[in-house]
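Morning!

This is the sequence you dropped in the shared folder:
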Amino acid sequence: MIARLSFSAALLLSAGCLQAVQRYPVTGLILKTDPAHRSFVASCTAIPGYMEAMVMPYTVRDEKQLKGIAPSMLVDFTLVVEDDDSYAENVRVHHYVSMEPEPVEVRNLQLLRTLEKPDAAPGPALGDKVPDFTLTDQARQQISLSQFAGKVVVAAFVYTSCPLPNYCFRLSNNLGRLQKRFADRMGRDLVLLSVTMDPVHDTPEVLAKYAATWKADSRYWHLLTGPRTEVEALCQKFGVDFWQGEGSLTHSLHTIVISREQKLAANFEGNEFTAEQLGDFVDIQMRQGK
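The structure's back. Tokens below.
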């Protein structure tokens, strides 16, 4: 009897192991949401030992999990995998918080600027029409946002002498990866802009040399500069803050995506999203409005 009970217990234990629920932490960039069907689509980073980075649909058990979640947001959640089902739980916005000295200083300076100019007009929110602007590119051509109506525009705010590899270099590399990934759609469906935060130093000639580093095709990747006041005004519209320091700029990190209708589709802060996730989001935008 004791042996029989032990064997039965072993079978129960084995079955329990086979049916054990697995939980995996996931970070993803939201591409679509469908609260009515309690689902969302996200471009997710790899889950070690489970799956590669990929775009996947996910369901939630409670539609309240999707409250406040919208396309272009970076989120953290737990992927629950059962024997015959899987779902996401604890979906929450992944706010960009860096403890590196420069971003912390930027946030302090942003607060100071807000106190100095409490009545400053806010920039476009997601879904708002992006005001037109005109700057000069690396070929000394006048470039206006309005000339790209009907195309998706991705713009990163950088400066050519930035010494930090995870900052302007990474944002420029992201655009370089977009140029390569969507080579057959560049100019037709997609345009890239790099807006300098240092127009005094970053003349068209300097930008042309920087463009060569990234093999930027001037037909559809424009590196833009202009009068300092105009550059500052444009940067402030999208929450890009920068201050001149000793030999370098202290600045925030922003990459924006503008839809075919010239509405703000995304304003990505920081450097925690991958080039692949950015590309997946841009791909979705290019599929819309065609």
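Headline: Residues 123 and 239 are 8 Å apart (CA to CA).

More detail when I'm at my desk.
O.
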